[in-house]
Automatic annotation (TrEMBL), chains A, B:
Assembly and interaction partners: Homodimer, may be a subunit of the RNA degradosome.
EC numbers for this chain: 3.1.-.-
Binding site residues for Zn(2+) 2: H390
Major localization class: cytoplasm
UniProt organism field: Paraliobacillus quinghaiensis
Gene Ontology molecular function: 5'-3' RNA exonuclease activity; RNA binding; RNA endonuclease activity; zinc ion binding
Protein name: Ribonuclease J
HAMAP family listed in its UniProt record: RNase_J_bact
Positions that bind Ca(2+): G46, D48, D443
UniProt function note: An RNase that has 5'-3' exonuclease and possibly endonuclease activity. Involved in maturation of rRNA and in some organisms also mRNA maturation and/or decay.
The family this protein is said to belong to: Belongs to the metallo-beta-lactamase superfamily. RNA-metabolizing metallo-beta-lactamase-like family. Bacterial RNase J subfamily.
TM annotation in the entry: none
Claim: Metal-binding is one of the keywords in the record: yes
Length: 555, 555
């Protein structure tokens, strides 16, 4: 790669939903955009979080000038504490985003040593050879940015997450005039988010949700319990407004709801009338029809407030017959089953439940632009090159088709994976090389102390459990001193499988004696032999494949 | 419970989707309806199948007169081999259903000792005091039945799974005249399926799918690869018809597709033109535009044909740029992620993919009646009592509201759980008692050798792995002979955690020595102490909770 090449890559967010992290490199500058996490699915047993592998950035530590964050969703800020512990660079973001980042840094006790720099849509940052400016976009959280990097080779635009909402709940529209100007000035490369690239049409406006919330509140007879994403402050505002109109006090339940609402009120993003907020132990001082509970757990998270309410395990707060429970958020793919469990439980408590794709129509709109939104962005920017970001392959693929439909040349669109680098040299873009990229696992306190082997072991243990076989052997004569000791966990009930265990022990004794007759009686060979013969025997008898762990004690 | 009481209960299918099994008991007769399995979700680690707990039936073995099966879906026949091995009673079903049951019994080598009795919608079976007759219903598999039990106390109707399709693909309509007669004669109790009780309207007709399949075939340029449920023979017929119209040969891929199509052709349920079926190794003898591949895997099953095609792992068959892949089945809730992976892979192979709720509109219709279908059945039957079956609580709940809406008294509807018994005595129904019911796990060959404790162990092992600690202790002096031996699997990388393991070993040595000073130095107490102190230490250091398994070797 020669001088004056612009290199663009992602370390997360490509061919996946989550852990967004993109970067622009130009000579001695690297700008990192976003620093998100991803929540593990059932294939990542026991893992708490997945974050981007930043090996490349650590190898080029001195070049990294800034972490710029487009907005405060977890898939854009969730990895910040882990990132900043390894790479302490200044963080640029808007006020609300910084408020949420601060919560995380506080929790990880690194707030004081981090340099946080507030920007707004009008900010202009000058770095060596490159200037960075912003434009306002609408999304499902306040204070979102798109970013423009002006380089000597041309301008690069990163959209952040966005939709075009011409009547947003809070009156803060996307700045489409500025977008038009940016496009007119010329865009060499556009990186645009692809979440809803498969959905035709234009995203509905958030205002629609407000109308349906008020309708649901008006019909409700007892308490209203309503759940949504804590970070969707526009929606929270509409819920506050509905509570006000129907003369209800407001109780907040769930740690993230309390935290985020606190940040939003502090910085003036949320307007709650004086005296409306009450504590949960005051609920019984008011008639049910004068109470709204706003809580976390709309995605069915088993430990969140709504799940605990649905099973009667939230101390001091009860869901009673006649109460109305509203899901003001659709289930994210993968969460349907957990949401379903909660709905079943709420119905069995006698509550009226407003949920699901049929009945909640109007109680949720997406924060990500549909096809027409994406085409509008592409049309404003009219880029020479296009890289769809933030989505699975099928979304990136559809987004490229949209780009072609508005006139981007097919050969100028790049579907890339995490770690693929697009180099632009003398305004010619090519994707030829790769840098390291992948998943870093956070499990408990440890970062990266769990890897593929540990996960493979967990997977094996989870399927058929294990058998530990302890052999006490004489060091000098290399023979068994007593009968083998076999212990199983997660395999079968020991009590009901005594015969099997006895057969296994006999088999082991025979195996070890067979070994002693041959010449290769090293401990390793004995263990290997036991794993093989016991594994085969157990599979034939039970069709199960527990992990077999022979342990030899030398005496 | 006195004589002449009709008792009705479910052993599976209530408050869940899957493992359907219902029963009617009257004096010395028990009739079992359906015998399904359920596929385990990620909470049932390593389990292959979940089947009903039939303890109650085994305790009343002599009363069980028949297993009557409404239709051949897995959630209605999947447990038959396991059931019949324990309770060998005659099985009554239609020809197609028996064909599918036979496949299972053959595999389990119990076909010869089972009495299979073919019935049709006009059959009438006479048992002691009770006669059993049937009525034809439409569903997404051929040859489906509803059942009428005529008892001296009144008639009980079980709908099976159904929808009303007035233009079915195969011209075999629900027999609504007979339903009307049954209702007119009087129904004491109706049990009706609830899968789509939440969806307003009437289910679309299967014919609509046919039209869209032909459209997709006509547009396709290369090979057509199409996937649907093997058992949906009506849809398979429409795919065959589309292949015929577009002059394509047909290749079947996937074991269940081959098996079910074979049964369907044998018994005259499927009409494939002579010479249309070719083997997979003949594909290359034809131009791509003359080939259709019909395969399993529409739900994203990782081992099914479509998944293997999407990753290039199906020997001898390739998906090439220009091929069209059609998902002629919507994803069942919970399968979205697996389907999504396959779609991503197929796009990256360059195929055109027709999938998902937006684009596949028209390429799938449900086999389960929506609200208007359910109301039509309720209206035909005009039952005195109503028990919604086959669904989660929220569906059962909605179905009761539908029953009320057509005039069933609210107090005459019963939402019951598996094991709850509704007793009807002198035409008065009450739900007061329970019998045993629950999940029986099939894991490998074993039935019920895995239970809650084994599953709990697997869960724990899957989350943070384990530490095995071997202590070699002197039998006489009860003291450590050598340093403890600690082995971890699925916890952390041993190599990178040497210090931690060393600290643990030191801690164990101290713990054991502390024990020896006290008087309670039984092996059990020592193990208990180690589990506690090591568990606490590790949690403080890592925030992980591996299973800790101390093993004491006495020498």
């Amino acid at each position: 790669m020669s001088a004056n090449t612009i290199s663009v890559f992602g370390l997360g967010g490509l061919n996946e939903i989550g852990k967004n992290m993109y970067a622009i490199e130009y000579n001695d500058n690297i700008f990192v955009i976003d620093c998100g996490n991803k929540f593990p699915d059932e294939n990542f047993l026991g893992i708490d979080l997945i974050i981007p592998d930043i090996t490349y950035l650590l190898e080029n530590k001195d070049k990294v000038k800034a972490l710029i964050i487009t907005h405060g969703h977890e898939d854009h800020i969730g990895a910040t504490p882990y990132f900043l512990k390894k790479l302490n660079v200044p963080v640029y973001a808007t006020r609300f985003t910084l408020g949420l980042v601060e919560l995380k840094l506080k929790e990880h006790k690194i707030l004081r040593e981090t340099e946080l720099i507030e920007v707004n849509p009008d900010s202009n940052l000058e770095f060596d050879q490159i200037s960075v400016s912003f434009f306002k976009v609408s999304h499902s959280i306040p204070d979102c940015l798109g970013i423009v990097f002006k380089t000597p080779e041309g301008n690069i635009v990163h959209t952040g997450d966005f939709k075009f909402d011409l009547t947003p709940a809070n009156d803060r529209k996307s700045d489409i005039h500025k977008m038009a100007e940016i496009g007119k000035e010329g865009v060499l490369l556009l990186l645009s988010e692809s979440t809803n690239a498969e959905r035709p049409g234009l995203t509905p406006s958030e205002q629609m949700v407000g109308e349906h919330v008020i309708e649901a509140f008006t019909k409700a007879k007892g308490k209203v319990i309503i759940s949504t994403f804590a970070s969707n402050i526009h929606r929270v505002q509409q819920i506050v407004d509905a509570a006000k109109r129907t003369n209800r006090k407001l109780v907040l339940l769930g740690r993230s709801m309390l935290n985020v609402v606190d940040v939003a009120m502090q910085h003036g993003y949320l307007d709650v009338p004086d005296g409306m907020l009450i504590e949960q132990d005051q609920i019984n001082e008011f008639a049910p029809e004068n109470v709204t509970i706003l809580c976390t757990g709309s995605q069915g998270e088993p430990l969140a407030a709504l799940s605990r309410l649905s099973t009667g395990n939230f101390r001091g707060v009860e869901v009673l017959p006649g109460d109305t429970v509203i899901f003001a958020a659709g289930p994210i793919p993968g969460n349907e089953k957990n949401v379903s469990k909660i709905v079943n439980n709420l119905f069995s408590l006698g509550a009226k439940v407003v949920y699901g794709s049929e009945s909640s129509k109007g109680l949720h709109v997406s924060g990500h632009g549909y096809q027409e939104d994406l085409k509008l962005m592409l049309t404003f920017m009219q880029p020479k090159y296009f890289i769809p970001i933030h989505g699975e392959y099928r979304m990136l693929h559809q987004h490229c088709l949209l780009a072609e439909s508005i006139g981007v040349a097919k050969e100028n669109t790049f579907i890339i994976d995490n770690g693929d680098v697009v180099d632009i040299e003398s305004t010619i873009a090519r994707q030829t090389r790769k840098i390291p990229a992948g998943n870093t696992y956070v499990d408990g306190i440890g970062i990266d102390d769990v890897g593929e082997i540990v996960l493979r072991d967990r997977k094996k243990l989870s399927e058929d459990g294990m058998l530990v076989i302890v052999l006490t052997m004489s060091k000098t004569e290399k023979k068994l001193i007593s009968a083998p000791d076999t212990i199983s966990r997660g395999f079968v009930y020991m009590r009901e499988s005594e015969q099997l265990i006895e057969d296994v022990n006999n088999l082991i004794t025979r195996t070890v004696m067979g070994q002693q007759k041959s010449n290769e009686n090293s401990w390793g060979a004995i263990k290997q032999d036991i794993r093989k013969s016991v594994g085969k025997y157990i599979f034939n008898q039970t069709k199960k494949k527990p992990m077999i762990l022979p342990i030899i004690i030398e005496v």
